[in-house]
Amino acid sequence: MLKMVGVETFYGKIKALHGVSLGVEKGQLVCILGANGAGKTTILKTICGITEPEYGTIHFNDERIDHKDPEEIIKMGISHVPENRRIFPELTVDENLLMGGFLIKDKDLFAERFEKATAHFPVLSKRGSQQAGTLSGGEQQMLAIARALMLEPKLLLLDEPSLGLSPKLVQEIFTIIKDLHQAGVTILLVEQNVNQALKIADYGYVLTSGKIFLSGTYDELYEEEKVREMYLGEGKYVHRARLWRS
Ligand SMILES: Nc1ncnc2c1ncn2[C@@H]1O[C@H](COP(=O)(O)OP(=O)(O)O)[C@@H](O)[C@H]1O
Ligand SMILES: [Mg+2]
């Protein structure tokens, strides 16, 4: 469905992505794991046309999309939930969802999408008239995801949805992502929360300094000494591994 080959993206003269190649198949939940500054956000921004790659190609359902405008890319079915959940804080919850559905002209279709998008988030359906800026961090994240779902995307890009949330809400967000995946939504998830992300993903890519240095399924990555060292802390991994498996 999505295929990136040899993508290099620059900020001025600084190269942020060094020949990144990755793929997402229909129905998959794929995650990109990496520390702060690894280039995770840049990958998503490059896919949805906010930044243009200098080299390489990106295909979406066999159509080339690098160098297309962000709006064109949204219309093709790629929705992006950016870092730090940029909702419209002055608008109500419902108005935010309305903005998410800006491309939908048909009233009945809009109502149907609204129902569907909010069905995953019972907490939001009770708060339609609340100003979005007054929601908790976790609720704002849910709103940001619900807003992206209004267009019933073929591919949903999620940029660190768990960042800054309490452990309980992190759990809730990951459960929702898992449910969306099970409901058939294709997802490319960017995360620093390696444990949680790998647990629900079909496939993972590990990114360091703009390069993909490892990729594999949960089991394959779990077997990698380097992943355990980097993300689980030496000596602790046996204990953590038990937690993973439980
Ligand atoms: N707008 C920008 N201008 C210049 N450099 C940037 C910009 N955005 C990101 N970078 C740099 O690109 C690299 C990758 O950043 P980013 O994709 O945001 O990483 P991540 O999302 O993994 O934390 C970092 O070194 C960062 O400082
Ligand atoms: Mg980022």
Structure description:
- The protein is of the alpha/beta class and 246 residues long.
- It folds into two domains: 2-77 and 154-245, Rossmann fold; 87-152, no CATH class.
- The chain contains eleven helices and twelve strands.
- Strand 2 and strand 3 form a beta hairpin.
- Magnesium ion (MG) binds at residues 40-41, 83, 160.
Descriptive terms for the model:
246 residues, 12 strands, binds magnesium ion, 40% helix, 2 domains, alpha/beta, six-stranded mixed beta sheet, Rossmann fold
Q: Helices, strands, pairings?
A:
Elements: E1 2-8, E2 10-11, E3 14-15, E4 20-24, E5 29-33, H1 40-47, E6 55-60, E7 63-64, H2 70-75, E8 78-81, H3 93-100, H4 107-119, H5 122-125, H6 137-149, E9 155-159, H7 167-182, E10 186-191, H8 194-200, E11 203-208, E12 211-216, H9 218-223, H10 225-232, H11 237-245
Parallel strand pairs: 5-10, 5-11, 8-9, 9-10
Antiparallel strand pairs: 1-4, 1-6, 2-3, 6-7, 11-12
The structure holds adenosine-5'-diphosphate and magnesium ion (MG).
